[in-house]
Batch of 2 targets.
Target 1
Amino acid sequence: LNKPDESAFYSDRADALKKVFNSKLIDKKRKIYTDGIGTDHTSLHANMFPLAFGLAPEKNIDRINEFIQSRGMACSVYGSQFLMEAVYDGNNADYGLKLLTSTEERSWYNMIRAGSTISMEAWDNKYKPNQDWNHAWGAVPANIIPRKLMGIEPLEPGFRKIRIKPQPATLACAEIKCPTIRGEVMVSFKNDPGKSFLLTVTIPANSTADVYLPLWSKSQNITMNGEKAAFTSAGTYAVIKNVGSGNHSFEVLNPR
């Protein structure tokens, strides 16, 4: 919007809020969030929201992930959107896949088991006998799978620049066609965790992408379109930046 003063003002306010929020609400011993000032009680909600909204310090994420995982799906269907955001943004893809494929009572599978053909307002009739069976907020996997599991998200307005960051966990293969204003983004992978990962992508015209690949070891080989690729490291990922439009294939081989 070409308003640099306002941008700086709100950035400063956001940084100040994050600092105060963490100083008041993180239990320094357990390294997880409490429910409020003056209590040592901790809940799923108190930890999933800060992680989903990017407030959690990097050094605390592993402990927060552990706590979140210990609580299961202890939230409503509406809350599950923020739980799944937190799980994948915390790079806990194994747990994300477990929740997506769960057959427990609090699961999307249970909506099918209950007889619904569209996502429901609550996990089961026993939680809300007067619920409706046509509720958009229950369709969390419809956005989590393309955005987080398959990893297609815009980095710039209108998908001018795209991040492609699959988080397959143990999923052996998947493919997706994701519509954008600039054309379809297509992603498919074949995955043998710790050994090999083959990713093919189609990037629409007038777009570029940063592509994230698993970084298992220093000895692994990474190729792009059959040739050795240069990349930067980002945690457990190898990142190939500014990949142009068109069809591309990436392969990760980890010799043992």
Note: The mean pLDDT is 96.
Target 2
Amino acid sequence: EGIGSFYLSPRLQLFYERHPSVLIELVTSSQWINLSKREADIFISFTKPTERRLSVRKIGEFRVSLFASEAYLKRKGVPEKKSDLEKHEFIDYIDDLIQIQSVRWLADVFTPRQVVFRSTSLIAQYASASSGLGIASLPTFVAAHDQSLCPVLPTLGTKRDIWLSVHKDLEHVSSVNAVTRFLSEQISRDQRFLTGI
């Protein structure tokens, strides 16, 4: 949902200019897409797929960090060290409904005492953090869309790989090849933006 809405969609105009005859249908899902069952032609994921008959390659990575709105930090104070986070309120995923374990990025850096909002939607988490509800662990490419979001202890961040998969039967189809080449080029070109380096 996040990479599709906040990163890929804004770049599709450039793809359309190059390939006006190719129609892209973007499906965002918190569940695993099965390419073997032809649920999609191309799959972008944060975990390496292990299905048979797939061509899979890592095409980049992105950084996830803690962010909060200026309003929240004004109200609750700016954490200066990790132990300061104990006094803060957090936004997170719903543990029991997580389908893809790699989205447990908050757990990689901190286990909060007080979670004030949980959602299966990264966009809902982003919107609630932006409105001042609490601190959220967000990909930096998501937080970049809102100037009121401030990094919180950015050294506590984590990274996730970006994997591109396509069924081997479709690997040489010209339209599929055009999309995979475009995605690989864009993500490679944007690595500094995606990783915050």
Note: The first strand starts at residue 42 and ends at 45.
